[in-house]
Design brief:
Blueprint: E1 2-3, E2 16-21, H1 26-39, E3 50-55, E4 60-65, H2 72-77, H3 89-109, E5 114-115, E6 124-126, E7 132-134, E8 141-142, H4 163-167, H5 173-189, E9 194-195, E10 200-201, H6 202-207, H7 218-224, H8 235-248, H9 259-269, E11 273-275, E12 282-284
Antiparallel strand pairs: 1-3, 2-4, 3-4, 5-8, 6-7, 9-10, 11-12
Helix pairs in contact: 3-5, 3-9, 5-8, 8-9
Membrane topology: Single-pass membrane protein
Protein name: non-specific serine/threonine protein kinase
EC number: 2.7.11.1
């Protein structure tokens, strides 16, 4: 059985992406149903759109809109044949803000609040205009709890999750916030979340460097920004994003910002974002 609301009925064929859950078994069946249940609740411009699904006895398939620009990880860190042009500063700011809005939708706007559980740059898709779409809800949990089993697919050494939370079996909204902070640092610094060459985790590297971000002078902020930008960025915006990331790493989950607070902070402190009063959509002044 299946449902394909985005397929058929017209003469124009649209590209789609398919995620297949192969093999039988109760555990796989539950994982597919859990992801499908979450996806059926979602409708947001910065979350990948589910077009349809198939759920026969042996395997399940999820059909998504096709997003042409690849992943954020590929765009920031691609090398060799996968090397891309440098992602401009304003595009990075836009992606950070759009992702914050997507997380706000999951955490606070859905009838049953949703924890994504695996926010990372490889789970952020980009279209041709560098607008982002959060994807892969295989680890998502619906209905908020501060003590639910962490997803079995999440590595115990993930640089996007605070290790203490994995050990204690904690999966919460504030885990998503921590992961968002790591991703924001990736956007600002251009560094990978885990530096395999040095065995260093980006969040740990940045923690001691950003303690007094408000007191950092221009040169100190500049030294933290991706050198591939060649100075083409707004220093105060970079300072604000570094400060936001830092707040997401707070040892106390109670002190970490909520998604709505992150959106509010970016509206107030990131000058290249302008907002219309007619609706919740946004635009970026002089966007690329």
């Amino acid at each position: 059985m299946g449902r394909f609301p985005g397929c058929g009925g017209g003469s124009t064929a649209a590209a789609a992406a398919v995620k297949v859950h192969c093999g039988g078994g109760e555990r796989l069946s539950m994982a597919f149903k859990q992801e499908l249940d979450v996806l059926l609740q979602l409708e947001h411009e910065n979350i990948v759109k589910l077009l349809g699904y198939c759920d026969d006895a042996d395997q399940g398939a999820l059909i998504f809109e096709y997003v042409s620009g690849g992943t954020l990880h590929e765009r920031l860190h691609g090398s060799g044949s996968n090397k891309r042009s440098t992602l401009p500063w304003k595009s990075r700011v836009k992606i950070a803000f759009q992702l914050a809005q997507a997380i706000e939708h999951l955490h606070e706007r859905c009838t049953l609040h949703i924890i994504h559980g695996d926010i990372k740059s490889s789970n952020v898709l980009l279209d041709g205009d560098s607008d982002c779409k959060l994807c892969d809800f295989g680890s998502a949990k619906m209905g908020f709890s501060s003590m639910i089993p962490p997803p079995s697919s999440l590595p115990s050494s993930s640089p996007y999750v605070r290790r203490k939370n994995i050990i204690m079996g904690i999966a919460s909204k504030k885990n998503d916030i921590y992961s968002f902070g790591v991703l924001v640092l990736e956007l600002v610094t251009g560094l990978e979340a885990f530096r395999a060459d040095k065995g260093l985790v980006l969040a740990s590297m940045a923690a001691h460097m950003t303690k007094d971000v408000d007191r950092m002078d221009v040169s100190e902020v500049t030294n933290m920004v991706d050198p591939r930008l060649r100075g083409d960025f707004n220093v105060e915006e970079a300072r604000a994003l570094i400060g936001l990331a830092r707040s997401c790493f707070n040892e106390s989950t109670l002190v970490r910002p909520t998604a709505s607070h992150m959106v509010k902070m970016m509206k107030e402190k990131v000058s290249s974002i302008s907002f219309t009063n007619s609706n919740s959509r946004h635009k970026f002044s002089n966007d690329l």
